[in-house]
Specification:
Elements (H helix, E strand, L loop, with lengths): L4 H9 L17 E7 L3 H12 L6 E4 L15 E2 L9 H18 L10 E5 L2 H16 L5 E4 H7 L14 E5 L3 E2 L2 H14 L3 E3 L4 E7 L2 E7 L2 E10 L5 H6 L7 E13 L7 E3 L6 E4 L4 E12 L7 H14 L8 E12 L5 E4 L5 E5 L9 H14 L13 H4 L16
Parallel strand pairs: 1-2, 1-11, 2-8, 4-13, 11-18
Antiparallel strand pairs: 3-7, 4-6, 5-6, 9-10, 10-11, 12-15, 12-16, 13-14, 14-15, 17-18
Bound molecules: flavin-adenine dinucleotide (FAD).
Length: about 425
């Protein structure tokens, strides 16, 4: 069933009794050409592009929980392509272009809202660094503009401009950045893939990977054995655990990242704003709540909840950026498990094991990458060759010394 204004109207006339489920609830087949482990944004997008762009439809996505239970339904919904380094820049811009046509493409309202992303700077040195990044973006055809303090004040007069330690001197703005409703992205890709014949199987945990003569032949699951021509891992924060099923150790650590939402307020922030002097970023949801977050919790964990020290740290940085925030009540917070890589950049690659493909290392920036990640991973699985924009994200770059360290932090996953 295609969604359109006309179908909403006609179904309304019929008492909304004729809508069909957005996707089927199929029992697993004994074997698929491609099995994708992980029904998050990346796994579902991969299935969608495999079916739609590369014509491979005998595909299953196996999700241990429900769709949206992982990071795809837990993130702070920000999309942007404001990267400096050559490996990252074209890839995230491909993603931005895919976001721009996504809702028409998969026929689902994901509330793509290009309301702008503004990175504040607070010192001359930081302005130089942001200018360099903005120039790199423009050289790659990405939109960027440098705003001085007056221009930022005109947009956001309530910021703490005269903070004694961190005065706001301006910001790097990407007007095409913004937000997308995160769980709708999972639902849209699931529905799109299902329509093209992909089996999206929920409550199906992969517990083991079967190999014969060095080749992967399928997976043991809570619903029995499922054979696979090719096996693709897209398990985000659990990547180390699924890789361990084939004795593979990945250059990843798992850490918790928290997000927060406040009580509903009248509209006052129309875009995304990030603090340059501490770990804090904020946008306002359509319901009026401030959606914000900060840095990851500083220890390794697989628990989908955070600790109070980080709550305090984030709130402190938030009040430094917007003093009036001290009067706002926080409604709730939650956590997701991040697959933090050693250089802060992702991995989209074949593994040394035949038939086994890996999509991981998204750190806390993988939501914005969802369309490009799915597209490039599907390209790799279908053609056996990396897509040109994802060539830098090879697994062996750590051995070869070609790390893509956007933040320049070194091999410190908790700092990326
Ligand atoms: C609080 C928070 C804020 C964030 N904010 C942003 C942001 O603003 N912008 C941005 O770009 N990124 C952001 N991110 C990061 C982004 O959400 C992730 O990088 C991205 O969602 C990861 O890819 P995914 O959607 O495929 O992951 P997930 O949704 O986590 O998908 C992985 C799936 O694999 C499943 N799985 C794991 N093991 C198994 C198994 N053995 N068998 C079957 N299934 C399994 C899991 O249940 C899960 O559903 C944020 C993350 C968090 C937690």
């Amino acid at each position: 069933m295609r969604y359109s204004a006309l179908s909403v109207f006609l179904n309304g006339l019929r008492g909304n009794t004729r809508w069909t489920p957005a996707w089927r609830d199929p029992a697993p087949q004994p074997r698929y050409d491609v099995v994708i482990v992980g029904g998050g944004g990346h796994g579902l997008a991969t299935a969608y592009y495999l079916a739609k762009t590369f014509g491979i439809r005998n595909v299953a996505v196996l999700e241990k929980g429900w769709l949206g239970s992982g990071n795809i339904g837990r993130n702070t919904t920000i999309i942007r392509s404001n990267y400096l380094l050559p490996g990252n820049n074209p890839f995230y811009e491909l993603s931005m272009k895919l976001w721009e046509g996504l809702e028409q493409d998969f026929n689902y309202n994901a509330m793509v809202s290009q309301r702008g992303v503004l990175n504040l700077f607070h010192s001359d040195a930081q302005r130089d660094a942001y200018t360099r990044r903005g120039n790199a973006m423009r050289l790659h055809g990405v939109d960027a503009e440098l705003l001085d303090a007056d221009a930022v004040r005109a947009k956001l007069p309530f910021l703490g401009f005269d903070n004694a330690r961190f005065p706001i001197k301006g910001g790097l703005h990407q007007p095409r950045g913004g937000t997308v409703r995160h769980d709708a992205v999972a639902w849209g890709y699931a529905r799109g893939a299902d329509t093209l014949g992909v089996d999206v199987i929920q409550n199906c945990e992969v517990t083991g990977i079967r190999r014969e003569n060095g080749r992967v032949t399928g997976v043991e699951t809570s619903k029995g054995f499922i054979g696979a021509g090719k096996l693709a891992l897209a398990t985000a924060g659990h990547s180390s655990r699924t890789a361990a099923m084939v004795d593979m150790v990945l250059p990843l650590e798992s850490h918790v990242l928290q997000a927060f939402v406040s009580e509903g307020l009248k509209p006052f922030i129309d875009g995304v704003v990030t603090f340059g002097a501490g770990h804090f970023y904020v946008s306002q949801s359509d319901k009026g709540g401030l959606v914000f977050g900060g840095d990851i919790d500083g220890y390794n964990s697989y628990a989908q909840r955070g600790n109070l020290a980080t709550v305090e740290h984030v709130a402190e940085a938030g009040v430094a950026m917007i003093p009036a925030l001290s009067r706002v009540r926080m409604l709730r917070s939650w956590g997701g498990v991040m697959d933090m890589s050693m250089d802060g950049s992702p991995i989209i690659d074949r593994t040394p094991i035949d038939n086994l493909y890996l999509n991981a290392g998204w750190c806390y920036g993988g939501f914005k990458a969802t369309p490009a990640s799915g597209f490039c991973f599907a390209h790799l699985i279908a053609k056996g060759e990396p897509h040109e924009t994802a060539r830098a994200f090879r697994l062996d770059r750590f051995r070869r010394g070609y790390a893509i360290d956007e933040k320049g932090q070194g091999a410190q996953p908790n700092l990326h």
